[in-house]
Amino acid sequence: MSVSILFVDDEEHILKSLVRLFADTGMDVLRAGSAVEALSLFERHEIAVVVADNMMPGMRGVEFFSRLKNIAPKTVNILMTSYTDLPSALEAINRGEVYRFVVKPWDNDELVTMVEQSIHRYLTLSTLAREDETVIQGLAQTIELKDPYTRGHCGRVASYALMIADELRLSPQMRKDLRYGSWLHDCGKIGVPEAILNFGGPVAAREFDTIKKHPVMGAEMARQAQLPTAVVNIVLYHHERFDGEGYPHRLAGEAIPVAARIVAVADVYDALTTERPYRRAYSLQKGVEILLSMKGNALDPALVDCFVGALNKRNLLLSDCVSEDRGHG
To answer: Domain named HD-GYP: which ranges (predicted)?
Structure first.
């Protein structure tokens, strides 16, 4: 089966306009004149995204999406509505039945971008649901392609988080959750425009508000894919701060799940010691100094000490190896 997008509207001229708009996108486009007809298409097609009008006779769009939630829970739903019917769209979003809404008359470029992002979301959910280690790691690398400055970031964060796990002698299951959570912690950036991610300087408040949505979007995907709670928590809370000044929920101290606090330390250290569009990379030693200065405000003090101790151990081991090699020479 091919992955398709489906447009549902009882007005023929609307369907023709939508099919024409997406004719050159390379997407497999389906159409239906009613919700009942649309439901039958799910028996024969894998449908990634549905764009449906709300005010249709027989079965409104919100009712259609409510039924679809049980039939195709990973399908991404976009509700097309008028300004006067916005409350219905917002209510459907709050219930989790609708991902986005578009107001008639729509902007062509915005609608195409919204559908493209929704397809990425569907493919991400489908990948996560397999819970295959190689595939999940590949997904993380694909997400990193949106931001060339973060290439390899998720893998390095996982390595640093596992160093802390080794020091704390955490269980194999927690180590697996830390690995998956580290790989996926930025998966919500699928919904953030690349122009914002790759901006070569401090972003404006509005753009930063968009960036700040990625933990919630990512956690929702991880939750829908039925990944372990610890993985969802890492994705959702890795930007919380120990002093309560982080986002998205301003949790503080030990109210932040420990797995998220571990990944936060690893995430910050890697960000400090790699190139970013707005600054050069700090040296490893300078990265440690900055990390230590963040104890108790941004980061859990005990976990920072644990990580720095692990780094020192590794450096000592490397020094010992060099000394041994020279001795044998």
So the answer is: 128-323
